[in-house]
Design brief:
Layout lengths: L2 H10 L13 E3 L7 E3 L12 H12 L14 H14 L9 H6 L21 H12 L14 H13 L10 H6 L13 E6 L2 E6 L21 H12 L14 H13 L10 H6 L23 E3 L16 E5 L4 E3 L4 E10 L3 E7 L5 E7 L1 E2 L8 E2 L4 E4 L9 E7 L9 H5 L14
Antiparallel strand pairs: 1-2, 3-4, 5-6, 6-14, 7-13, 8-9, 8-12, 9-10, 10-14, 11-13
Length: 439
């Protein structure tokens, strides 16, 4: 096969197939809202083992290369051979060593923070543009051509989609609000409380205006990374009350410190460690009622095998006046699709005009879960069959659409669809590439 054709195919692969990279290595200087420093990357070397080697191996496999012996977390001869093959096809120096250029190509390098005084514009190129593109991909937005470091039309379109999904002003350019929402720029520190002067017995003293009461939070308004609000301050106070340190205190800024604190809380409570404020975490902090109290189901398994990515696109506009009533989990074609609860397959449709191949899974209480755009169904699956949570029921595809992903809906007790994002985020397993033992 023509090497140049292979190279184009490899470079053209969207980095979304290697999932959402951790942003936990970014740290924020509270004294300077314009500066965010990235922790230097430690590149795994031959003979080493551990989670960073696993991450490297997963990225190599996601690019279509085979590691003899599989993903074992050990940087041995088979990993070096696969890495050398990838470097050769990508047009790099085929050393079999993970250099910074190859690590960046594989999406293993953390994004470079930005300064609000030098935000890249269309026509620019370089690391800052690459960081924007990678941050978009990490947020579940496809950048056609991948993260190539060139700010062209594809990047502008992707930025517009991200802005629309996050309720930002759609400019298709990187403004300050967009950079903050992407986690590339620290949110500005909240303004200090206003003071008023009180005169009593001839003494003049400044008195701070009382802080507003704790902001109310609902399952539909859970604060997210990059947000600055009283709701974020409420979350921070809840973490502090639970004995979890929030570096910088309750400053109302949802940045790295708050994400790290949430992760520590989740770990201490045996919750899925997402470092995001998902529904189960908010309930454990006493910020919202439990899912059961809200009449919502708890998912027992994540809908898709990793690597994958997803974002909150609930009620985003769709064609013909429709709105989005699910969450789109994006991943490579052929990834396993799982039953999220124990239940019965109550519907299977092939070739739907909009849904393509789809499945309906119904729980004992009548709650049903709808999966669309599957490439195919699991062998032997049939309507009326009982399945267990985590059982493979199909495979990711693009039937009825253009980009491989599963459209996933939740209908409590058979009623109208509800926003599935907080439910799915609570069991986020986009980094888990292993298929569990099957019944």
């Amino acid at each position: 096969m023509n090497t140049s054709v292979i190279r184009k195919a490899v470079v053209g692969l969207s980095l979304s197939v290697i999932g959402s990279m951790s942003m936990s290595t970014l740290t924020v200087k509270a004294a300077d809202a314009q500066v965010v420093n990235a922790k230097p990357l430690a590149l795994p070397r031959m003979g080493e083992s551990g989670p960073e080697v696993i991450r490297l191996q997963q990225a190599i496999v996601a690019r279509g290369f085979t590691i003899r012996g599989g993903i074992d977390g050990s940087f041995g001869a088979s990993t070096r051979s696969a890495l050398r093959s990838l470097q050769k096809v990508a047009g790099f120096r085929a050393t079999g060593k993970l250099d910074s250029r190859t690590a960046k190509f594989l999406g293993l390098v953390d994004v470079t923070p930005l300064s609000k005084n030098s935000l890249p514009t269309i026509g620019a190129s370089g690391d800052a543009v690459w960081s924007i593109q990678q941050a978009l991909i990490n947020s579940g937005v496809t950048v056609k051509g991948g993260a190539d470091g060139k700010f062209g039309l594809a990047t502008s379109i992707a930025i517009g989609r991200f802005q629309s999904a996050r309720g930002l002003r759609v400019t298709k350019s990187v403004d300050e609000a967009t950079a903050i929402a992407l986690g590339l720029l620290a949110a500005p520190a909240p303004k200090a409380s206003a003071t008023k002067t009180v005169v009593a017995a001839g003494v003049v003293a400044p008195v701070a205006t009382p802080v507003a009461a704790a902001a109310s939070i609902t399952i539909d308004s859970l604060p997210v990374r990059g947000q600055t609000s009283e709701a974020v301050r409420t979350v921070q106070h809840a973490l502090l009350a639970a004995g979890i340190e929030v570096k910088g205190g309750a400053d109302a800024v949802f940045g790295v410190a708050t994400s790290v604190a949430i992760g520590k809380f989740q770990s201490s409570r045996g919750l899925n460690v997402t470092t995001a404020l998902d529904a189960n975490t908010a309930a454990a902090l006493g910020l919202i009622p439990t899912l059961a109290e809200l009449g919502l189901p708890t998912l027992q398994a994540f809908p898709m095998q990793g690597r994958c990515s997803f974002s909150d696109s609930w009620h985003a506009p769709r064609g013909s006046g429709r709105v989005h009533e699910g969450v789109d989990i994006i991943g490579a074609r052929g990834l396993a699709i799982y039953a999220v609860v124990d239940g019965i397959i109550t519907r299977m449709l092939s070739g739907g005009a909009l849904s393509g191949n789809s499945i309906r899974l119904t729980a004992p209480d009548g709650t049903y879960f709808f999966y669309a755009h599957l490439d195919g169904f699991a062998a032997g699956l049939a309507v009326g069959q009982s399945v267990r949570a985590g059982q493979v029921i199909g495979y990711n595809g693009s039937t009825g659409t253009s980009t491989p992903h599963v459209h996933f809906e939740v209908h409590p007790q058979g009623g109208a669809a509800v926003n599935p994002y907080p439910l799915v985020k609570a069991v986020d397993a986009c980094n888990n590439t292993s298929i569990p033992a099957q019944p």
